[in-house]
Amino acid sequence: MSHRLSRIAQLLNPVALALRLLPARGRLLMLALAAVISVVVLTLFGNSLEILEERLGAQGWLLSADDTPEERITIIAIDEASLAEIGAWPWSRSDMARLVSALTDAGVQLQLHDISYPEAREGDAELIAALEASRGAVLAQAPVLATNGQQEQNVRAGTMTFPLAGLDCAAATNSTNSFVAPHAGFGAIAKGHIATIVSGDGGIRKIPAFVCVDGQPYPALAISSLLQAINAPSWSVSLSEGSGLFGPEQVLRLDAYPGLNIPLDADGNLRISYKDLPQNFRAVSAADVINGNIEPGMLENGMVLVGGTAFGMGDIVPTPYNGATPGVELHARLLGSLLDTTMPYTPRGADWLLALLALVFAGITLLLASARERIAAYGLPVVALLMPVLALSLHWQLLAAFEIWLGWLFPALFGLLAAASLLLLEQSRVRAERTRVYGNLNSYLPSDIAREIAFSLPTSAINARRCDVTLLSADLRNFSAFGEARPPEESAALLHFFFVKAAAIVEQNGGRIQEFKGDSLLAVWDGQNADAARCALAAGQQMQVIVDRDMPQNPPAGLEPLALGIGIEQGPALVGSIGPAHRRTHTLLGDTVTITLRIQEMTAELAQPILLGECVARQLSDLKPESQGSYLLTGLRIPHTLFAPAYDVAQSDTPRRNARAEQLNLKILSGGKGS
To answer: Residues 137-149, buried b or exposed e (16+ Cβ, 10 A)?
Structure first.
């Protein structure tokens, strides 16, 4: 069950699946996975990520902010100083009439009141008369829109007037039956709505161009201001779809204002521009206007926005410039954009353009992943950080130069995930390849040496160390003659069988194979002690059993049977790598190696399957090895006494060994001791 679950987990692991594919297909799979994850993340965390996109995206305005003073629009601020002098809010209608009259006397062309008067009060007649006597005035009416999933409130105060003509509310997104509007006594005064779209973080970035109330579309305050400023005989408009990849989703046109195309999003909203610095908008205290404490001609032929800026009035919203900005400033910004015909908008093809940018990022990551290992290892992390910056920079550039709000989050997220996933794939591929290389090295070399070679840089210097070892040299006798008479495939299979069995025996007894050479092998045990000697002897005896039992014992006519000669000795040796950097060899050097090989050669002459050197025999004194005499080994100048292991515990094997000795026609030389 666990194996099946492990298999399923491996199949579901995209990295493991990609590694099993061709490199190009594996990379494409990881890019597709990055795209899917990006879409899922944006779907699951859309609200939070949208706020992040809006906040960082708006920084493009701040980086290229326009510091040109706005001389056409002035904010008449009902600020703390005005409240202190005139009185607490709300002011009486008489005080508001005094303000309206003072503005008219100052030569204001159009007064926009970010204020609604839903209840009838004393002084209404005076205020209405002052408004009618002005050169132009627009009052605020506030449709109540449900925001952030809240249920629509059932509020109906005052009377909604001055709807637009030419629009169908059947499919309108911004629609409500609740509102707060001036009462019927102000019916002759033009109106514009001040409803806003409040984001999850409390910021206001969009205002509906019109809101449908009871099936009638009512324009935003800024649009009403344009219509009122030109004394439009009718408030007739048309709404059509945008055209082109870079065109807006919808275009609103005023019949009385030819040439003005107001870009809207798919929901019919206007995006507020924050390109102008807050200090560009001149603000004059309402108390100063009432008292006449303003420069002559300051407001001549201009537009004014009357609204509350004091904290106690509650009309404070966060903006990219300030966490506490008067709401009246937003209407001033929107009106300024309409006058300049520079309204920001999201193009119809934004999704396609962002997808194209994501494809460019995918191509960049593919090129880097396909490059050499070092380029991919360093390049992919760099582009993982650079691509979000590039996406955001492109958004900023379009916003600053063309007032196009493209967005940046999807390509940025995709680029980051694409580079990260390909980096993970390439690192996994490199790790798999190194593991494969190490496994191959380990099949040719001892594991510790293979590990050292796999994780070290090549060098031409001698890399060796002195250590105490116990060595076993085993040679398969008569194999050359056997191979001469048999097909090479049969000889290879026989030698392979012997090496496999011998390697398993050595490893089971705590040793390791140093090398296979021809039809012989050299095995190593660490240390020069009795434990290593016993393990080496046990391995040699088990090898003899394998040869006697499993190797062919009835050779073709004229050939002697296969036999095994084993020499064991221990002592110091030098182990390491030598040779040039481009062609190294791992070797074991020293007298101990030479002596062990020569002892193994003496097994044939002394008719002993296993011979022990003096050092090993000393470690195995409790087993009472039998001396075979002292011999001058080939190539050495000092005689060495050789020993054969005692066979007291294996007397049943004596007849077999004697028969094999006779079959091999071996004899004991002078100075030796027979078994």
So the answer is: bbbbbbbbbeeee
Tokens of 367: 């090129």
Asked if 290 and 102 touch (Cβ cutoff 8 Å), the reply is yes
CB neighbourhood size of 432 (10 A):
13
Looking only at the bridges linking them, the beta strands covering 70-78 and 303-308 are parallel
Looking at this protein, which amino acid is placed at residue 159? Answer: T
The first and second tokens of residue 210, run together, are 């019109």
Helix (H) or strand (E) holding 142: strand 137-143
The DSSP secondary structure of 379-447, one letter per residue, reads HHHHHHHHHHHHHHHHHHHHHHHH-B----HHHHHHHHHHHHHHHHHHHHHHHHHHHHHHHHHHHHS-H
Q: Is the C-alpha dihedral spanning 421, 422, 428, 432 positive or negative?
A: positive
For 105-146, write each residue's pLDDT tens digit.
999 999 999 999 999 999 999 999 999 999 999 999 999 987
Query: Is 570 in a helix, a strand, or coil?
Result: strand
In sequence order, which ranges of 175-243 are alpha helices (DSSP H)?
221-229
Longest dimension (CA), the chain: 145
Sign for the CA dihedral angle at 237, 241, 243, 246 comes to: positive
Hey, CA dihedral for 49, 222, 74, 128, is it positive or negative? negative
Take residue 161 and report the two structure tokens written for it: 């007037």
Could you give the CA distance from residue 432 to residue 17 in angstroms, rounded to a whole number?
13
Q: Per-residue pLDDT tens for 504-545?
A: 999 999 999 988 888 899 999 999 999 999 999 999 999 999
Residue type, 520: S
526 touches 509 (CB < 8 A): no
Q: Rounded distance, CA 391 to CA 182, Å?
A: 46
DSSP 25-63: HHHHHHHHHHHHHHHHHHHHTHHHHHHHHHHHHTHHHHH
Angle between helices 23-44 and 409-444 (to 10 degrees): 140
- Counting as low any pLDDT under 50, the low residues of the chain are 648-675
- Per residue in 285-314, is it b (16+ CB within 10 Å) or e — as a string? bbbbbbeeebeeeebeebbbbbbbbbeebe
